[in-house]
Amino acid sequence: AQASALKTQADEAMQRIEYERALDLYDKAYALDPSPALLYNRGRAYEALARYPEALDQLEEFERTAPDELKAKVRRLDELLGRVRAKVSQLEIACNVPGARVLLRAKVAGTTPLDKPLRVNAGKAVVEVGADGYHPFRRTLTLAGGAKQTLDVKLVTKASGGLLIVGSPVAGATVFVDGKRLGAVPVQTVLPPGKHRVVVRHAEYDDADTRVEMVAGGRNEINVPLDRPPALTSRWWFWTGVGVAAVGGGVLVYALLTERDADKGDMPPGQVAGPLVRF
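Given the sequence above, the corresponding structure tokens read:
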């Protein structure tokens, strides 16, 4: 009777859009009477709170344990399960160091090795893995709904080198360290002690080239700005038009130049070294 009264109060809270209150009441009712019907109600409360992994856990348990006559009262259960699954992603994390702490979206998710994949809301997520004596690992992932992703984490001891973190105000810029492509900003890597070359590149900007010096156990975080190349018409020459003429059965393509003051170079402005010929 007490569980039934709590369920009625929870149902009323759901109608008032008081989802946190409703979930608390459903939990209390379930503790008194673990009815499969309450699994469904709890799942809907979690769904309303956008806590989709917990919602999926409750709804799948309802599907497994509820008698057929009860499930028949739930309209479009398969459709509901599919909708919630599409908002949940599974992340499997492997790590070379046992006992490392795993944080997902700034919340503790456990320690390595994890006994099962993490169920999380789909979307962008920051994964952090750390252990004493090792450089921390941090990566931003885009987790697809209804899919499973595996992340292989290799922690490196602080004695072996320093941690370099490279960012840029230009989203999508690519980082190269000592000629090796590391990926889009922000990126992090552990480098041996000494000087290293860092290049940040984006198709719409001039490359930024800098040097960093690393020490064992140290941390070096840099934010690299990029400059857009000067506009074409701001240079000492720019193409103003293209002329075409027939030449001995071929086609002569010649460019018209607008003369400006030369910044540098030894070819007099306003002159073309030779025609562009296409046959």
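The radius of gyration is 31 Å. Try to locate this feature in the token string yourself.
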